[in-house]
Design brief:
The protein has about 150 residues and is of the alpha+beta class. About 20% of the residues lie in helices and about 45% in strands. The protein has three helices and nine strands. The longest helix has 13 residues. It is globular.
Amino acid sequence: MSDLASGDFLGVFALIRRGNATLFVGNDRVVGGAPTRTWDLPGGRVEAGELLHEALARELREETGLAVCGAPSFLFVQEGRRRRGGRAAHAWRSFFFAVDVEPGEPVAGHEVLAVRWLSPAEMRTELTAPYHDSFRRWLDVGGTWFRSEWSD
């Protein structure tokens, strides 16, 4: 999830699992007024003219060096609104896909400070940003559409 000053966000994110662990990328963000290391699924903004699967492959390659193998499988969509000082700042729509990748180890790159494989227990303690609510609900109960709100 990008820290946006303004403008809506259309994004794609990859769920990559190895055994019991899921791949996350780390960035420093301001959450609730405090600098915070957030752990997010690899992914990001869909650029003008890109299809979702193209953006997914590009973002994954840029952030981790990994290459998509085969077709991604749709998991869910999250639609949300960020508010600052009680006013709507922007909306986002993020599409989440299960992805298989070519063999190799992920390496942090392009606006990503770190990569980390998280166990289910670690996800419960690390995924605390406001926009993680949908992913946590998906882990708990499944579903294909979630609404979220982030207020600063």
